[in-house]
Design brief:
Length: 832
Amino acid sequence: MEMAMAYACLVSLLNTMDQIQTHPLLSTCFDNYQFQSLREIVDFLVDFVENYSEEAEDLMGPIGDAAHEAEDMIEIEAADRIRGESTTKSVKMFLRRLEKMIQGINSIKVKVIKYKEEIGSIISMPPPSSSSSSSSPATKKTSMLGFDGYVTQLLDELIGHDSRRILPIVGMGGIGKTTLAKNVYENSLAVYHFDVRAWVTVSQEYNATHMLSQALSFLGGSMNKADDELGEALHKTLSCRRYLIVLDDVWSVVAWEKIQNFFPENGNGSRIVVTTRQQEVVDYFGSSSLAVGFLDYQNSWDLFCEVAFAEENCPLQLEGIAEKVVRRCNGLPLAIRVIGGLLGKAPRTREYWEDIAKDKSLVMEYSDEGNKPSSILYMSYKHLPVWLKSCFLYLGLFPEDHKVYMSLLTKLWVAEGFIKPTKNRSLEQIAESYMKELVDRNLLLVGELTINKKILYCSLHDLVRELCIKTAEKENFYWVQRDIGGRRRSIFDERWESFYTGQSFTLSEKPSPLVPFKCRLLRVLVDDKNSLDNPFQQVNLRYITQGNYRTRPAIPSSISLCWSLQTLIVHPGSTVVLPSEIWDMPQLRHIEISKMKISDPPLGDVCVLHNLQTLKTVEKLVFTEDVCARVANIRELDIIYYSSDQRVELGWSFHLHNVGRLSKLESLSMCCMGEQCVGHPLENLRLPNSLRELMLDDCYVAWSGMEMIASLPRLQILRLLGKVAGLEWKFVKEEFRCLKHLFIYNCDLVSWNADRSNFPVLETLLLSNLQMLDEIPLDIGEIPTLEQIAIFDCSESTRLSAIKIQEEQESLGNQALQVLIDSFDSPNFHFF
């Protein structure tokens, strides 16, 4: 067991203890003194592992095993007590076993203290890898296939502008950053233009003396000096000269901060090129960066043939196999070079090449000189903070080319116990920051952004996924399941028919060889086919996804036995009825069901669901003061109301004035269904100032009554769908101060009287099915932030007004405004 597993076990144990201590029943069933003693030890060990060094490797196994065993013991006891299966004798036995376990963990703490005393108070990071690149670029000429555009762009940046400029090149390991920088560094134009040039390899274990010495070695200076003397010598050498410096493989801005003062601003067009995998390094410099992407297929093929066959063509009998090999490299230049080098030396027989094509691990593991993709990608993993490692390895459980949605991934990370709690931030917010950091480190690729520029989903490069799986197997974090059996942390079936990850289990159409009901510590269950009669027998479940509930519309009261349940998701089906016991489950964080009814809260003491953030989609929710107090921290809420045979004043019947009490609410969707929902059914609705996103669907809100919505100080997204009372939207004093995205769909709006002052920061305007609208106010085009107007199935006069706005803006030099007429190419169309 290595660091990632040890840390994950420790943090998971802390989370489990926190959940027990906040549970209304279990909090009184465990010995507080024991828990306090255990927590103090675990906190100490977490701090130690966060400052881990390679020399402490032998301690990682005992630490992780002990935390793992302690958590198992506690969760099993919690399950027994929830089920009422514990006895006085079994409780005493548990307390004795736990005390013995605490003593064992404390003995590990003693060893850690002794270790820290032996090495000193400062624990160093791992030393530089022996396979790290040399201090200067390799002399071998490297092909620049697919890089012509980058070379031209970078050369253009090198010339002109008298001020000193820093030019970052960013991309994942193996993408070709160093290759690009080297090509430009050696380009005849750069050689001619700059008086002096120097190449400095920084690497993750930077050293100021070494960096300064490298620079001076290219400039002919003496290197046998102290840091300050080296810096002064470098500064003196560069003064009054136009210089080009390449800082290759920068992992931290601290490396630059140690030497930045020795690069003078001569006002003569000097340049510093920085290659990095870290987005934070790019952000630090604050200058435009050059992001290197993957090669397209044609350039990948040309590069492969150049490496594998030199001046020859690919033999016809091998072309089909070679194409498969190249496609598996997914445009990563380093992977293409490695597999091309392997096959270039291999027998050119179909049988041999087919064997290579079937073995993806060879792409990752084969090496002649240590410059393999796995070694470089592993360096990215090795450099991750310990709290990111388990989250990163977990990504290997998703299928190849899978869209990894942020909302799903963050819930899973939280359920698995990977996220260490911090003050003033929810576990989901911390998890989102982890995902963003993996994106910034180029280990995750952003697939699509939401309308408000947040990550919707990411993808994982195949080679990075292989790194996750192989590293996880090496560290006993999980491994690919081919036969039944294995350790608890994770078993993963590569056919994606089932997986059991960190106490997780997924079912699909084919029956799994694993029986989930024998997994007492099961945490994550995904049953899309609704094949389990009662999944709530697994009382340690934290995350449940079920298929449609057409045949079983009521969730049993036994769900309350799932004492640590955080997320409940039910896919489309008929309305699901949740029992009143749901109100007594304090660990709940997300309930997402296509349509649900929630039974009234039980009378008596109020159990506040402090962790509940998501509740959608609820039918006929009555916002009594009791309900609002129980869901005080809700962030996302979707509700549906129906009319009865007689006209219903929804605002009064469902106490909608109390919605304004929900001070943490950020996203609200309300739908009123039925022909009887007329007039002003939401006239009593009050909204909290925290709201950022609002959708009103057939709610008969009046155009003349938009003052309350316009006054919301944080509202960024507004969707008005269906029935809106009135034919004219006339602004008087209303100003949507923060509104960035406005969507209006299928209403009877005829006249819209507004100007730029009413929407000062609007970015997107989408209008659909507005057959009666005369025109879009011409002054809307004058909004400086406006990026797009999209019109779908609207009146001809509305279309013409949109075109007129675009033409007027173009005549004023505004080429950025995009106007789409009945075009479904708009990336924002699906937000209707």
